[in-house]
Amino acid sequence: MLTLLSGMAQEESRRVSERVKWGHQQSIKNGVVLGNSNIFGYKKDNGRLVIDESQAKVVKELFEMYATEKYCMKDLECHFYNKGVRNSRGKVFAHSTMCNIIRNPKYKGYYCGNKVKVLDMFTKEQKFLPETEWIMYKDETGKICPAIVSEEIWEKANYILRKRGDVVKNSRETTYKPNLYTGILYCKEHDNPFYKKQNKTKDKTYD
Which whole-number Å values give the CA distances from 144 to 23, 32, 35, 54, 185, in the listed order? Predict the structure, then answer.
């Protein structure tokens, strides 16, 4: 009897999980913004995003300053901290927070869903899906995901973010010996920082 009841409970759990997943997919198809309401620059109202004007000013300033390519994330972190700007949890407007804002297509007015798949509704286990599986389209009405910045400035800021990310990633692939000018000297032609790298082999170290 216990085995039978246990099997029935598991089957019911599976059915509930499937219904929830189906409901999520239908909501995504209907353009309902899912997830929590912790989206800096917006307030969520009945599955739609509404611009929070006070926070939107910070978002615009972040994109505009970063798109000039004159400021790194550390500069911007200090800039906003000195202005008294905090994130939605009342904490420092951190590097990771600003990167996530710049990458988020919602800020240029694009609906973006299906980024996360819930594997188990009871354990809350999730899987982050690759960008190729996202459901993303421009909100022509401006009623689901109204834009805070233009597509042009969003694209420019993301280009800079990717470019700088590639530089950091490449610099980590080989060891380098830090010195006074590491990462400070820039190539005038390509606007990339110089690093003193060392490739080590069994017999010799090459600069």
Answer: 18, 7, 14, 19, 45
